[in-house]
Amino acid sequence: MKELSQAYQKGTKTYTQIRSSCRAYIYEVTDSKTDHIYYEVFERRYNRRFDCISYPTDKAFGKWAWCISRGIDDQKALRVAIKWFEFPNTEKIAA
User: Which of 35, 41, 44, 74 is most buried, judging by how many CB atoms fall within 10 Å of its CB?
Assistant: First the structure.
């Protein structure tokens, strides 16, 4: 089974996986054009057809995926994202 990438680039945005568990992921999203940082939190979904874990599509947001932003306070957004899925604070956060 193929797992999600630790990091990838799409347009001006860089997606970096900072937390994961058997049921959810948190990705930090940095837009190089605006320097804005926000977080995407989503449930782990197995795609049987392609034998992989799937990234959420636009339709998934609000159902099993969420975008968390707090303007310029990206640390507050991170705290909200962590609390959302109750990841243990003892896990190391990728730089």
Answer: 41
